[in-house]
Amino acid sequence: MAAPLFLLAPPRSFTSVINAMIGQHPQAFGLPELNLFTVDNIIDLWSPRIKEFNFDAKLRHGILRAVAEIYTGEQTDETIEFAEHWCAAREHLSCGEVFNEIRQKIDPLIPVDKTPGYSIDCRRLERIYEVCPDARFIHLTRHPVKQCESTMALSDATFPKFVNAIEYQENRAILEPQLAWHDLNINILNFLEQKVPSGQHMRVRGEEIMACPEEKLAEICRWVGIRDDAQAVDEMMHPERSPFACLGPVTALFGNDPNFLRRSKFKKHVPDVPPLDAPVTWRDDGKGLYPEVIDLAREFGYQ
């Protein structure tokens, strides 16, 4: 089977659009957020204990939409019901076994997955490698200030709280998203450096893909070992053509970032890259990034 490709990054790091772009390559298949490697067995995705990002049942939307699309060719209330039965029939299987079954179904296309929850815990990342030792990984980065601002701008900014990104002050506790940016990126770095051969992972700044998409996407294609001709790259410039680049049926609406699902068309642009040493907008005390966050951002090439 074709080796899968995983995009690893904290949430709000251009993962949705870049996953869909790579997934539109003629030799790839861009999946929604499967969340399979967040748990041991597929039945665990139906457990009331699973409450990441405060999404609850929304964690299952990606796998349901993927199964409906792959096995029936469409996503409707009826095919989502089929997907529910498909998952129920495999409730005794590990999520790795289920992933490989999906992988075999779409072979020879390369599965592309970008579930943000994988980077929360190194054990989840290790699960991927145990199941798919041939997998390739792209560590996708975004400037810490812009990633944090995007996280805090969400209508329900629960992610920093979920990963314990809380700064305890003398008389109060505040959400501090840069803690999550730092810790999740460290998880990714540790996993890749300790577990994955150097030829199977690369790091890419998301801002570079936004600004120079044709060049950077062709570079990724060459690294993966797939076509990098103009026609293939042009297909990748249209993430809106993905069957998962819109809201799904009522019974499985999401499976991806809601903002992307409502506005999935890509527009080439140069993202704003603020200085690392300025006060940050989400604090009311005039403080900026932590020194360790600045150091890691500079390691990633941000100034």
What do these coordinates show?
The protein is of the alpha/beta class and 303 residues long. It has one domain: Rossmann fold (3-Layer(aba) Sandwich). It contains 13 helices and seven strands. A five-stranded parallel β-sheet has the order 2-3-1-4-7, with helices on both faces. A hairpin with a 4-residue loop joins strand 5 and strand 6. The N and C termini lie far apart (41 Å).
Order of secondary-structure elements: EHEHHHEHEHHEEHEHHHHH
Work out the number of β strands. 7
Shape descriptor: globular
CATH topology: Rossmann fold
- Strand percentage, roughly? 5-15%
The total domain count is: 1
Secondary-structure-based class equals alpha/beta
Radius of gyration: 19 Å
**Count of helical regions:** 13
Helix content: 40-55%
CATH architecture verdict: 3-Layer(aba) Sandwich
Supply the CATH superfamily name: P-loop containing nucleotide triphosphate hydrolases
Cα distance spanning the termini: 41 Å
Largest sheet: 5 strands, parallel
Low-confidence stretches: none
Average pLDDT, all residues: 93
The CATH first-level class comes to: Alpha Beta
Strand order of the largest sheet: 2-3-1-4-7
